[in-house]
Specification:
Distance between the termini: 13 Å
Helix content: 25-40%
Radius of gyration: 21 Å
Strand content: 25-35%
CATH topology of the largest domain: TIM Barrel
CATH superfamily of the largest domain: Metal-dependent hydrolases
Shape: globular
Length: 383
């Protein structure tokens, strides 16, 4: 399985190695799963001039739900679903993934409340059995509009895989979806329900959010601090949102939806995580601020995949080639590897440097498109 011991030694030669200090040609030596040094050796595994970059560290992907819910009314067995998700993740060069599991529900998929704990159990069992190529950690996406979130947080926050917590409120009229009518039309179409049913569900969401939202948010914030976990505030839109997050001890503003919220978050010392798909698409699917604009103002500390698992790798190479933005390849790669690793205390990975884990990706470019040639985790080839 994929947790087998790494080879005692391995040399990757004829590579263009992307390090924090720049790009260098030559070979990389690996011993017992760790980066041992650089050289000019021509023996070992010849990468044929491919780029060698650190494995992607993805702080937010909710792509797992594409496999647990392949259709609106279908719930797939969890371990096979997670294995399929893992294969997609690692094929895009991600070696450490924070699976962003929904804690509570806003309007769609109320079964999220019931499946969270068995899904976490399946993830832990698969990880322990070596069923996954990437290393999987938990990002608890805590929906504050749902009172059930409090008990679910209490049941999962102490799990050994839980490494990141975010507070989010998907009630329309604020944050990600300020246009209630637009949100409603999209939601009834996605959920495949009639308007009358949708209106009743939306009214229930509004009632829950007004009555319990503040209580749930406070509970989640306290639980995360008690567990000493990094905490993110999701979809900050206003100055008040950023200021509230800072006052609560939140460390990261995740996917701010306006330039003013991102600026205020930075002034208050919060790190900023943005969505790689937004940058690749040239704008937000929801009509919010474009990530390219945030990058131009120096308001992005890390990029996450959000809903397209391979998007961080694609975004990094596109960003390095984007003459309108001041990022060379090492700086762009750091946004999807070193920066997210440091945000979450994973100081043993995220960059190519002696002594760190040999989580590595060999990449070729095909007409400017990155193509993953091989992936190593802890020095063991998994792709």
């Amino acid at each position: 399985m994929f947790d087998a011991a790494p080879p005692a030694s391995l040399t990757l030669s004829n590579a263009r190695i992307v390090t924090p200090g720049g790009t260098r040609g030559g070979a990389l030596r690996i011993e017992e799963g760790r980066i041992a040094g650089f050289g000019t050796a021509t023996d070992g595994l010849d990468l044929g001039g491919a780029w060698l970059v650190p494995g992607i560290v993805d702080l937010h992907t909710d792509h797992v739900e594409r496999h647990t819910h392949p259709r609106v009314s279908v719930l797939w067995p969890f371990l096979p679903a997670l294995m399929a998700h893992d294969a997609v993740v690692v094929s895009g060069g991600t070696t450490t993934v924070f699976d962003s599991l929904s804690v509570g529900a806003s309007m769609k998929r109320p079964e999220r409340r019931e499946i969270l704990e068995p899904l976490v159990t399946a993830l832990a069992e698969g990880q322990a059995a070596g069923a996954f190529r990437a290393e999987h950690l938990l990002h608890l996406r805590c929906e504050i509009s749902d009172p059930a979130t409090m008990a679910l947080v209490d049941a999962t926050i102490a799990h050994p895989l839980t490494r990141l917590v975010s507070v989010m409120d998907h009630t329309p009229g604020d944050r990600q979806s300020p246009d209630v009518d637009k949100w409603f039309r999209h939601m009834v179409h996605e959920m495949e329900v009639d308007e009358e049913t949708g209106r009743a569900m939306m009214d229930d969401l509004f009632d829950r959010s007004r009555a319990r939202g503040a209580e749930v948010r406070t509970h989640v914030i306290r639980a995360a601090h008690a567990a000493t976990l990094p905490l993110m505030s999701h979809d900050d839109r206003t100055l008040a949102h950023a200021e509230q997050a800072a006052a609560e001890g939140v460390a990261i503003s995740e996917f701010p939806t306006t330039l003013e919220a991102a600026r205020r978050a930075r002034e208050l010392g919060l790190a900023i995580v943005a969505g790689a798909p937004n940058y690749l698409r040239g704008g937000s699917q929801s009509g919010n601020v474009a990530v390219a604009e945030l990058l131009a103002h120096g308001l992005v500390d890390a990029l996450a995949s959000d809903y397209v698992p391979r998007s961080p790798l694609d975004a990094a190479f596109k960003l390095a080639a984007d003459t309108a933005l001041p990022y060379d390849l090492p700086a762009a790669i750091a946004l999807v590897s070193d920066r997210p690793a440091r945000m979450t205390g994973l100081d043993d990975r995220g960059r190519i440097a002696e002594g760190l884990r040999a989580d590595l990706v060999a990449v070729r470019l095909l007409g400017g498109q990155p193509v993953v040639q091989a992936v190593w985790r802890n020095g063991r080839q998994v792709v």
